[in-house]
Amino acid sequence: TACNDLSFPIGDRTGGALLTAYINMVTVSAGTMTLSKDTTSPTGNVAAGATSVVLGRFEVKATGEDMEVRQFSYSVIRSVATDLSGTLYFKVREKDTTNTTTLYSMAGSTADYTNDSTARTTTFVTLKAGKTYFIEAIGDISSTVASNVTYAVTALDVTSVKRISSNDIVDPTVTAVTA
User: Fold this and answer.
1) How far apart are the first and last CA of the chain?
2) 130: which residues sit within 8 A by CB, 6+ positions away?
3) How many other C-beta atoms lie within 10 A of the C-beta of residue 31?
4) How do residues 74-92 score in pLDDT, each as one tens digit?
């Protein structure tokens, strides 16, 4: 009888005034992204000359659709005028895995320690919707640095992504996060 057919996905469209009670609706909207400092972002002391030191760990998650990270901004801070040695890497990995992909890298000696910087990724990494990822800044500490020196990568902000289903490139409007 009319209005008693509750079958999925359409329901009974002859229900008169009760029509809306039996229509299944799907609303499609563009994907979003969240970014936050991860609770496991390390703090503490490391030795002069330490290598592959995580200078900041940020949690990023695409919701609603897969997204390619295209560009991000960041700040590198230090408490003395001694540059990081070796290479400063920005890497991404899925949470609970160890496999990383380099988003961007540069010589520690060429980092801008005064101003915010913007980096266009060298590899477009696709973040799968609903999965949690880490973006990690990893660098080497100079062997000549004195004790009580601070280094950090902070104010990370993803500024450009390609939304795969929407097929557009946008600023996901996440707020810059301090490590």
Assistant:
1) 62
2) 61, 62, 63
3) 19
4) 999 999 999 999 999 999 9
